[in-house]
Amino acid sequence: MREIYTKEILNILPENLKTAIGDLIKSPYLQEIRIRVNRSLILQLGLKEIICGYIPRIEDLKVIIQRMSNYSIYAFEEEIKQGYITIKGGHRVGICGRCIIEKGEIKTIKDIASINIRICREIINCSDPIMKFLVKENEVINTIIISPPKSGKTTLIRDIVRNISGGMRSIGLTGKKICVIDERSEIGACFNGIPQMNLGIRTDVLDGCPKSQGMIMAIRSMSPDVIACDEIGTYKDVESILTALNSGISLIVTIHGYGIEDLYARPVFKEIVENKIFKRAIVLSSRKGSGTVEYVYDFTNNSVIWRG
Question: Which end of the chain has fewer CB atoms within 10 angstroms, the N or the C?
C-alpha cells in the first residue's frame, strides 16, 4: 500500500534525490520532502525532522518542475500563482521563488528555488470510532473539527466524507449527497478535476473554489444534503455557513486551533458560537501521533461527551 502513495512522487524525482532519500520514502510517517537549492534536503517524518547529507542543485529542481508539469509549466500557471501544483496521486508540491506581480496580484512564480512535496494519503476507517457522535436519527449533525497544523484534520474530514457518502449501517446512517468545497485541493486531492482520494459514491467536489463562493454554488446547483470544507476562518466563510444552514444543509468543517477555547476567543466565530450553529466539535492533537482525538464536545450542553 505504501508504494501506491509514493509511486507518483518517485516519478518526478531525479536519481540523485531518490538515492539521498533511500528507504525513508517507504516510511508511513513521511509527511514532507523539502528541497531547497544549495541547502540540505530535509524530510519530515511525523514530529521528527531528518536532515540528509545531499545538497540539491538548481538542476534537480528543474527536473522536478519539468516532470511534475509534464514539460509544460505554462499549463499550470493558475495553480502556480496559488503557490503549488497538485500532481497525480493527490500530492501537493508547494513552490517558492520570485513572484511576478501584475495589477497588484500574483501572476506567476519564476526562478523557483525551493519546493515542498507534501505526501497525500488516506486512512480508510480512521473516522469510524467517532461517527456515532456525528449522526442522530439518520441526520448528520453540524460538526467542527478543531486541530493544530499537521494533526490529521484533513485526513479525518476526508474519511468522514467517505462514511457520510457511503452510509454506515452500524449507526443507522444511509448514504447522503455531499459536496466538498476543496479550496486548497487537499480533501479530494484532485488531479485534472478528479479526486485521487476515496470520497464515496455520492460525493461531488468543487476543487480550488473559494469556500464562501463554493457553498452558495453547491446549494444552487448540486442540492447536497451535506457540505464539507477545510479551514474556515473569514467573515465571508461564516456568512456562507449561515446561508447553508438556512437552506437545511448539514455542515462538516475544520479550523486551526488547540481546543474549544480557540473557537470562543476569535471574534470571527462570535455569531456561530452564540447561536450554537455547530452541535459537535472534535478536537485533535498529535499527542499520540497525527490524528489523535482528544475529545468530542457537545455545544448544546457545553460539555465533553467523549475522551480519546
Answer: N
How does the average pLDDT of the chain come out, rounded?
91
Instruction: Assess if residue 69 is contained within a domain.
Output: yes
Is a pLDDT exceeding 50 seen at residue 195? yes
Strands, E assignment, the chain = 30-36, 42-45, 48-51, 84-86, 92-102, 105-118, 135-136, 139-140, 143-147, 178-182, 190-191, 194-195, 203-207, 226-229, 250-256, 280-285, 292-298, 303-307
CA dist 255 and 298 (Å) reads 17
Task: Label the pairing between strands 178-182 and 226-229.
Answer: parallel
Q: What is the CATH number of the domain that holds 60?
A: 3.30.450.90
Phi, psi of 70 (to 5 degrees): 55, 40
Domain containing 81 equals: 2-118
Q: What is the pLDDT of residues 166-185, one digit of tens each?
A: 999 999 999 999 999 999 88
Residue 123 lies in a domain: no
C-alpha cell at 124: 480508510
**Cell 476507517 appears where?**
125
Q: Which of 90, 118, 146 is the C-terminal boundary of a domain?
A: 118
Q: Is 217 part of a structural domain of the chain?
A: yes
